[in-house]
Design brief:
The protein contains 17 helices and 28 strands. The chain is of the alpha/beta class. The model has no long low-confidence stretch (mean pLDDT 91).
């Protein structure tokens, strides 16, 4: 008997996907397999070899400065000798607080070359939050770019460490200038007596989590992960010496500071570094620098789509956009409007062991792990209780795997196989924070899995789709509401440029009611907007409250902040922003004043 047509099409789709994924996986494995077999070959040594091979070819480019391969190696050697002169010991921490620029990479290369561990500090922090990031790694030295000296000064009263502080550049502050000091050291290759024995197991960097749900955590990044990120993405993107990658993402995060730079350098290409993203100047930059690859974060693509037409938006030579977080409601418009030949979406955790890649450019999917790679990347979705924010346990105390299209938390099995260091969880500077991310007794007693904190679903063909962060999904009227899906529906309505969806408490009601902070264009039609929500969302998922803002508060990596919005709720006494209630009687969104707020909280309004 012939297979049903739908099943045959599904099989054909999987087979085609397997072929494309296999090609990408083979490229990647070719680049990454030798890493564990050569444990003494660390990333700074790779830079030395690249300097020998590519010499004066451009490596890191910016309007501020440009470094060739040779110049990058020489600059890093100067920082290495400076570190030795300061008595920096193997494993000692250094905090680096500097905006995007080629010098940024030269600094951390130099210190890690002699065993130092460089903490890449978020340049947007100040005060107690900045002090927390410094205190948690207990550095011996702190390097601050001159333009950030003011922000650093606000953290000094909260510091619990006695670190030597260096200024890079001049601003009049009474601090020693590391840029002047380093210039006195030789840039030639280190001699044997200056080198320290390093392996891929040694720690190289601390890279902080975004801090959207609390204080940032300092993730441990060893030399293996530096090698894996640089070599792996060189294979994933198929980088060549003729490629130039446009990087406007923060270099204090893995994607902007390790992937976007390392993946290009490995094969002789160049990375164009911009300090901050600008939608207005994006296409001018891409064309002016003749870029062929663009590293993105999903919300960055949304900003470009929401921007007015640009005369150069299709006159570029981009062959690939690679990144993560590109939502389905933006994907097709972004690719068609800007004539992007290929989009390569991926999912990965800086410190964890869960990664997947969408080599097939399946719209909306973060990736797929085909059967022939499942043993190398043991990843599962487990049933999750949104109310307790914990995995569901069966009577025998174990977790249960999700069925196809069932939403659950993504977890990756932690292995102790020395030949597969990528299957480990490297943890954080804090042991307590490390333990929180490990889930034990998952499918058998004694096993351990890394918790991503992300809710996903996997369809019948094996594609994974991101749904929400744990804690963002909420429950209302007995149903789970995924904020990302509601947000996509909201932004699909004409006149809405941005939306941030969350749940808020209502007195006397179980669960949390849906609320959306939105940025809208003048003359916004609330009646038709309500009709749009009714046509595309089930009743329980439609936002009951709106907050209209001039712009949304985001992190430097374009992740939306929700803490303050959830705290304020729909109370007009807590904000001057316009607030609205989805009123069933008038069939529109009505303004919330103190009287209506009181009625809602007392149960006097139908919801």
């Amino acid at each position: 008997m012939a297979r049903p047509w739908g099943k045959r099409m599904g099989l054909i789709e999987r087979l085609k996907g397997d072929v494309v994924t296999l090609k990408g996986a083979l490229r990647t494995l070719k680049m990454t397999t030798p890493i564990a077999k050569n444990p003494n070959r660390v990333f700074p040594e790779v830079i030395d070899a690249l300097a020998e091979k590519f010499g004066d070819a451009p490596a890191l480019l910016s309007d501020r400065e440009q470094l060739s391969y040779r110049a990058l190696a020489e600059r890093s050697n100067r920082y290495a000798r400076f570190a030795l002169a300061q008595g920096l010991g193997k494993g000692d921490a250094i905090c680096l607080m500097m905006p995007n620029r080629p010098e940024f990479m030269a600094i951390w290369l130099g210190f890690t070359r002699v065993g130092g561990v460089v903490a890449l500090v978020n340049t947007n922090l100040a005060g107690a939050a900045l002090a927390h990031c410094i205190n948690v790694v207990a550095p011996k030295h702190v390097i601050v770019a001159a333009e950030l000296a003011g922000a650093f000064a606000t953290a000094r009263p909260h510091l619990a460490v006695n670190a030597k502080v260096w200024l890079h550049g001049a601003d009049g502050a009474d601090l020693p200038r590391i840029d002047q000091e380093v210039g006195t050291y030789d840039g030639a290759a280190l001699v044997p007596g200056e080198r320290r024995a390093l392996t891929i197991e040694d720690r190289a960097l601390y890279i902080y989590t975004s801090g959207t749900t609390g204080m940032p955590k300092a993730a441990n990044i060893n030399h293996y992960r530096l090698m894996l990120a640089s070599h792996g993405f060189a294979g994933i993107m198929g980088t060549k010496a003729t490629d130039r990658l446009y990087d406007c993402l923060p270099m204090y995060h893995t994607v902007g500071g390790v992937v976007a730079t390392g993946a290009m350098l490995i094969n002789g290409g160049a990375t164009v570094i911009r300090e901050k993203f600008s939608a207005r100047e994006f296409w001018d930059d891409v064309v002016r620098w003749d870029c062929t690859i663009f590293q993105y974060i999903g919300e960055l693509c949304r900003y470009l789509v929401n921007s007015p037409p640009h005369p150069r938006e299709t006159s570029h030579r981009l062959r690939l956009a690679c990144g993560n977080g590109l939502r389905p409601d933006v994907w097709e418009h972004f690719q068609q409007r800007f004539h992007i030949p290929q989009i390569l979406e991926f999912y990965a955790a800086t410190e964890g062991n869960v990664s997947m890649f969408n080599f097939e450019s399946k719209q909306g999917a973060v990736g797929r792990i085909p059967w022939f790679l499942a043993h190398r990347f043991p990843t599962k979705l487990i049933k999750f209780d949104v109310e307790t924010e914990q995995p569901v346990r069966t009577p025998d105390g174990l977790c249960a795997a999700c069925a196809p299209n069932e939403i659950g938390e993504a977890v990756g099995k932690i292995l102790k196989d020395p030949s597969r260091p990528g299957s480990r969880f490297e943890g954080y500077a804090s042991e307590a924070e490390t333990e929180k991310k490990i889930l034990r007794d998952v499918f058998e007693k004694g096993d351990a899995w890394f918790r991503t904190g992300d809710l996903m679903r996997q369809d019948e063909n094996g594609y994974f789709y991101f749904i929400d962060r744990v804690g963002d999904t909420f429950r209302w009227k007995g149903e789970n509401v995924a904020t990302s899906e509601v947000s996509e529906t909201i932004t699909a309505f004409p006149g809405v440029t941005e939306a941030n969806v969350y749940g808020v408490a209502v007195s006397g009601r179980e669960g949390r009611a849906g609320m959306a902070a939105v940025v809208v264009e003048p003359g916004f039609d609330f009646v038709k907007f309500r009709e749009h929500l009714a046509a595309h969302l089930p009743e329980y998922a439609r936002p009951l409250f709106l907050r209209v803002l001039p712009e949304l508060d985001i992190t430097a990596t374009f992740k939306q902040k929700k803490f303050d919005l959830v705290r304020d709720g729909f109370d007009p006494a807590r904000t001057t922003d316009p607030l609205y209630f989805n009123d069933a009687e008038s069939r529109t969104f009505v303004p919330i004043d103190a009287a209506l707020y009181a009625r809602i909280q007392s149960g006097g309004v139908k919801m």
